[in-house]
Structures are given as C-alpha cells and as structure tokens.
Write a structure and sequence with these properties.
This protein has 173 residues and is an alpha+beta fold. The chain contains five helices and six strands. Bound molecules: methionine sulfoxide (SME).
Length: 173
C-alpha cells in the first residue's frame, strides 16, 4: 500500500516537472515564434477548465517566449477591471471602464495597439519603463470578461502580428 502511494506521488511529481519543461522556446521571426507557441498554449490550457490557472500559465509562457516587460490579465468584476494573473513588475489593481488603454479596449470591445504610450490620452503608467502597449479583450458569450495587457520597454514594439496571434490565443481560454 505504501509502495503504491509513493509510486503515485512520484508519478505526479514527474508529470508536473515534465509539464513545466515542455515549453519549447522558438527562435526566428515574431510570426514564427507565435506559430510555434500557439499549439503549445492550446495543449497547455485544453486540459484545464480553470480560467485563472490558464491565465497564469499563458502569462508565464508569453513572458518566457518574448521577454515582455509586463504581460497579464485584468478581469471584469462589478463594472471594473481588477488585476488578475500576470508576470512583471507590480501593477495598478483596478481600472475603470473607459480609462487607460485597458479600460478603453474593454469599453470599445476591440484590440488596441499603442506604439507610444505617452501619446495615448489617459494612459495609466503602472511602470515608467513601459513604452508601448497592446490590449486584447477576452469575450465570453458576446461580453468582454477580461483583457490581456502586454507592455514593452521599446517604442513601437507591438503590432498587428502580435494582435493577430494573441487574439487567436485568447480563443483557447
Ligand atoms: N497601462 C495600462 C494599465 C495597466 S499596466 O500597464 C499593467 C493602461 O493604460 O490601461
């Protein structure tokens, strides 16, 4: 009996170690990197129904692949965006509808690409290191339920390629 218990524990530990090591960091163009990454993200989240757990892993994978300054989620709760799973420096916890890049993407229900955050009226500077930003809404039954926010330390670093693949990626959640 004890042997079976130890065997089960070892199997679970190995399972999680192998899972953690499975991420393949692709090289090449941004498009090639996303093409290698998307099936991995789909596989990662498909077996897990918990949204927060999947958001946490998606943030970790995007940070590991692209080294973004900040990448993570805000969730719609009681007519506000509330900070969810993320990777990067600490961030503001609540954003009102229509405020900042995140609140504007939520209000409009569309992806926003901001090549220079200082040129975006009402941009909320959680980190002075952030220079460009991209926000993608996550929909459920036609409603925005969260946004994915990506911040880069470089100007004009996030573009239509990021938008296209990140929108596709959110459909896995
Ligand atoms: N810059 C965002 C706020 C969130 S942080 O970047 C993590 C905005 O203007 O909505």
């Amino acid at each position: 009996m004890r042997f079976l218990y130890i065997f089960a524990v070892i199997t679970w530990v190995l399972f999680f170690v192998i899972m953690a090591e499975e991420l393949f960091i692709a090289r090449g163009t941004k498009e090639e990197q996303y093409q290698a990454l998307l099936p991995q993200i789909e596989a990662l989240v498909s077996g897990e129904p918990d949204l927060i757990a999947n958001m946490a892993n998606v943030s970790a994978v995007l940070k590991a692949q692209f080294g973004f300054l900040w990448v993570g989620f805000y969730l719609v709760k009681a007519e506000q965006l509330v900070l969810g799973p993320f990777q990067g420096p600490l961030a503001c916890t609540r954003i009102a509808k229509g405020k900042g890049v995140c609140g504007t993407a939520w209000e409009r229900g569309e992806t926003l690409i901001v090549s220079d955050v200082d040129a975006f009226p009402g941009h909320i500077a959680c980190s002075s290191l952030s220079k460009s930003e991209l926000v993608v809404p996550l929909f459920h039954e036609g409603e925005v339920i969260a946004v994915l926010d990506v911040d880069s330390e470089q100007l004009d670093d996030l573009d239509e390629v990021d938008a296209k693949y990140l929108e596709r990626m959110l459909k896995f959640l």
